[in-house]
């Protein structure tokens, strides 16, 4: 009875999982978690504090800069953050148009 093994092939498969799949899975988990926090918790607090008229406006002003596998390869870190979004607000005061940049 002979016993053979292909340990090199098994190591290559494990290395592939560590290098490619784990960063992808962690990145997706971080992105999904931050999206859930925004959509459920922050949206609820926003609705209590303000008269929310547009969910799309809320999503735009609370946009998420998502992590990806390439970021993990470049920096060794996986992070997702809320992006600071600048928008223009126009107000008409006493017949004159005033433009203010807000963020």
Overall description:
This protein is of the alpha+beta class and 103 residues long. The chain has one domain (7-102). Helices cover 55% and strands 17% of the residues. It contains three helices and four strands. The protein has helices at residues 7-49, 55-61, 69-75, and strands at residues 64-65, 81-82, 87-93, 96-102. A two-stranded antiparallel ribbon has the order 1-2. Strands 3-4 form a two-stranded antiparallel sheet. A hairpin with a 2-residue loop joins strand 3 (87-93) and strand 4. The longest helix is centred in the N-terminal third of the chain and has 43 residues, at 7-49.
Note the main attributes of this structure:
single chain; 103 residues; alpha+beta; two-stranded antiparallel sheet; two-stranded antiparallel ribbon; disordered C terminus
Provide mean pLDDT, rounded: 78
The side-by-side strand order for the widest beta sheet comes to 1-2
How many individual domains?
1
**First-last Cα distance:** 73 Å
- Compute the number of strand runs: 4
Low-confidence stretches: 89-103
Please give the largest β-sheet.
2 strands, antiparallel
Strand content: 15-25%
Q: What is the CA-atom radius of gyration, in angstroms?
A: 23 Å
Query: Which word captures the global form?
Result: elongated
Derived from helix and strand composition plus strand pairing, the structural class reads alpha+beta
Helix content: 55-70%
Order of helices and strands: HHEHEEE
Q: Helical element count?
A: 3
């Amino acid at each position: 009875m002979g016993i053979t093994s292909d340990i090199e092939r098994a190591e290559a498969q494990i290395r592939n999982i560590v290098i490619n799949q784990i960063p992808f899975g962690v990145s997706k988990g971080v992105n999904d978690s931050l999206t859930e926090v925004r959509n459920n918790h922050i949206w609820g607090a926003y609705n209590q504090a303000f008269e929310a008229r547009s969910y799309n406006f809320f999503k735009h002003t609370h946009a998420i800069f998502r992590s990806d596998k390439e970021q993990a390869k470049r920096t060794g870190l996986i992070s997702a953050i809320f992006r600071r979004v600048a928008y223009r607000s126009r107000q008409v005061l006493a017949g004159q148009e005033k433009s203010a940049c807000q963020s």
